[in-house]
Fold this sequence. Notes:
The chain is α+β, with helices and mostly antiparallel strands. It is built from 3 helices and 2 strands, in the order αβαβα. It has a two-stranded parallel sheet. α2 links the parallel β1 and β2.
Amino acid sequence: MADTLLASGITSFLDAARGEDSLKTHADLIGKGLLPQHITPALLIDTELATKPPGRGRMPA
């Protein structure tokens, strides 16, 4: 897949609706040189977290 994307000039993409487990997969592929593109993951989060984020209004330390 990575070679096909590069051949088409695609060097980065948004990977929509991903879980945290896919981050490790992406990191492993990048570490092995098998995924040279820059990936921006759009992580799925729990509805409660989306409506009531912890520390709302404060910057994390």
